Structures are given as C-alpha cells and as structure tokens.
Amino acid sequence: MSKVDYLPTLDDASDALLPQQLEVLHQQVVNEGGDDATIQSRFNYAWGLIKSPEVNDERLGIKILTDIYKESPNRRRECLYYLTIGCYKVNEFTMAKRYVDTLYEHEPNNKQVQMLKRMVEDKIQRETIKGIAIGAGVVAGIATVIGLMSRSRRR
Fold this sequence. Notes:
This protein has 155 residues and is mainly alpha-helical.
C-alpha cells in the first residue's frame, strides 16, 4: 500500500459539500460512463457522498468505495481509510473497526490511522456501555413490574 502524507480526519467528513458541488462530481462520473468512469472520478464522488448528511448518500459512497477497493489494489489503502470513516458515520462500527484494523496492520506507526482506530474503538466502547445501561434499565423495570404484580396478588 502506498503512503499519502495527508488523509482527512473524521471531522472533515462532517463538512458536507454544497448540493451543487456534489452534483458536479456526479455529472463527472456520468459523463465518463457511470461505472466505467475513472477510478479517481468515482473516488471523488464517493468521498463527496460520504461527507453528505444524508444516510442514503453515505451508503452509496460506501458502496462505490467498496467497488473501487475490489477492482483497484493500488487504491486499497485510501479506500480502507475512507470506508472506515463512512461506516463510522452510518453507525456500522463493526465494519469500521474491521477496515481500520486492516489498515492498522499495514501502517501501525501512521498517526492518522492510530487516531482513527482510537476513535472507532472509543465509540464502540461507549455504545457497548450505553447498551449495557439500557439493558440493565429494562431488567430493573421488568423486575419492578413483576414485583408490583406479585404484591397486588397477595392482597
């Protein structure tokens, strides 16, 4: 995998393009033949879609990047990074972790990859804790209802 000095941060993915800018990227892909468009044009469009606040756009961006990953081995590093960001944005944290772990295997000393990996793992941990807390609340609520019902039967 080749190295690039700069990769966007997760915060960069929150800066959506203007609809007109995204349309320019889309038209470039269409004018080049859609699925037969250059990898760079499709990549640019995918990144624009991932930056979108619309989940359907983000998912389309992820699909396009997945296709590029499969057909262009020399773009896999970038695709893994951007796929991690896309999956993170659509709350597919397991896939985001899988992508960033693969990237980390190849570049364990890359500071941007380390930071992205840490962000994904922190989010997974927070979601797990939140899930446990919700589960515990549900169990406590059910126990309370059962307790109240059994108390009312005794009377």
